[in-house]
Amino acid sequence: FGIPSMVSESPFKIYIGNIPTYLTDDQVIELLLTFGQLKSFILVKDNMTGTSKGFAFCEYSDTNVTDIACTGLNNMELGDRRIIVQRASVGSRTNQLPSQMMGMQPGVMPMGVPGGLLPSNLTGDNIQPTTILQLLNMVGNDELVDDEEYNDILEDVRDECGKFGTVEMLKIPRPVEGVKVNGVGKIFVKFQNVSEATTALRALAGRKFADRTVIVSYLTESDFYSENF
């Protein structure tokens, strides 16, 4: 993407924590770009191995986007985790804390400790696997409006997900003019069991679909059936 990796200290610097470590720079950037162009971005990596430490910093070109992006992305399920997204400088009156720890509020610290300083099973940040996956960044509204394109997408997703198990239900909400429809832009797939869903999540996360990087996470059955998505 050619985005500068020097994120300057400013009120508009954003911290993104608890990122699944298998996601690449480009995949995290694609997610952030849904809210606007980036002025700078860095995914923090281990100096020795080059592997992601699971947290990043960025700044948007349009500073008005800062709070909108933080609200929209914070606590979003990404893979098997929920990401933490907030201004890096929130609540920090001094510069004595390491920059990646700035802005962490009491009680939030264990989830946001960079680099996984606590075992993940103690932090409560891992999402309980379910039989249902939600696929993000795969379809645009224009594709969902056209009947032919919509049916092609349904067939493609059913075929692809069918490689990993039995697809019991497939939901792709469509936009309706003048009506707020929950989950438009997302695809929901219910498998026969959790192991099939987990296999599919690992295989599909980070894959390309129509030049978009697919983002996959679990969805609870209650949210699925109540259409709380």
UniProtKB/TrEMBL annotation:
GO biological process: mRNA processing; RNA splicing
RRM domain mapped to chain residues: 12-90, 131-221
InterPro entries: Nucleotide-bd_a/b_plait_sf, RBD_domain_sf, RRM_dom
GO molecular function: RNA binding
PROSITE patterns membership: RRM
Alphabetical UniProt keywords: mRNA processing, mRNA splicing, RNA-binding
Domain of life of the source: Eukaryota
Name assigned to this protein: Splicing factor U2AF 50 kDa subunit
Organism: Smittium culicis
